[in-house]
Amino acid sequence: MKLFKRYWFYFLVSAVFLVPGIYALIAWGLKPGIDFTGGALIEIKFENHPAEFTIKTVGKKLDGVMPIDRLQTSGENQYLIKTKPIDNTTKDQVLELIKKDWGEVKVLRFETIGPTLSRELLIKTLTAVLIVAFIITGYVWRQFGELKYGVSAILAMFHDSLILLGSFAFLGHFYNVEVDVLFVTALLTTLSFSVHDTIVVFDRIRELKRKHGRLPLKTLADAAVLETFSRSINNSVTIIIMLTALFLLGGETIRYFALALLIGAITGTYSSPFVAVPLLLLWENASKLTKNLKLKIKN
User: Fold this and answer.
1) 55 has pLDDT over 80
2) Quick check: helix, strand or coil at residue 80?
3) 183 and 98: one domain?
């Protein structure tokens, strides 16, 4: 089976997901949570199920005391209220107003994040991604002895990251899904997951190259992907099933964290054989064309 006879086809498949995602990032961007914008988070639990406890009814009740940015469930009779930064006095006023209409309530969590901390977190996130990319490129280059392996692996990694970021730009625009520290964790996990599978395929290509050095790289890549494909699928399916269950059955607070990991697992499984390897072949063909042009110029 010749998987890479027309390897440009895989770039077209990637473009179907990348182009809308990049457009969403440019046009709408990500919807940052309080971890990045600063604000307050109150998690409360009622003794009994509260009637009509929605952002509309709560917003009217707390009008003039505390503007609510977001209200979501976090468990049975549990709710997360996100708002602008507030102090303990305002928090106590809010709780008293809620108790009057909806009954006894217990505070499970109260956090306030200032804008200075949120900017620092954003800078650290971007720095972490750049450091990870640099280290992975250098490591793969050193292990495989050629720069093209490191660059192909890192480009496939950014391919997965862009699809994940684009997906959450869509979710943020249409469903008000915010990105927070858990999303950053999922993003960094996606980077490592993508590179892990890519190195497995590249390692098999290297082994075949040692045994059959005279064969074209495209032939070796076909064989390597076919030999490692079942292993990658088996590993990925177990992860995908677990993350799907976590997304469907998990609580509201980790639902989109599970979704981010799920998207990363799917794109990572695809990109290792069908993005990283085609990029490797593209580099190889470009190198051959460059050498041929140099020889023609000399002659």
Assistant:
1) no
2) strand
3) no
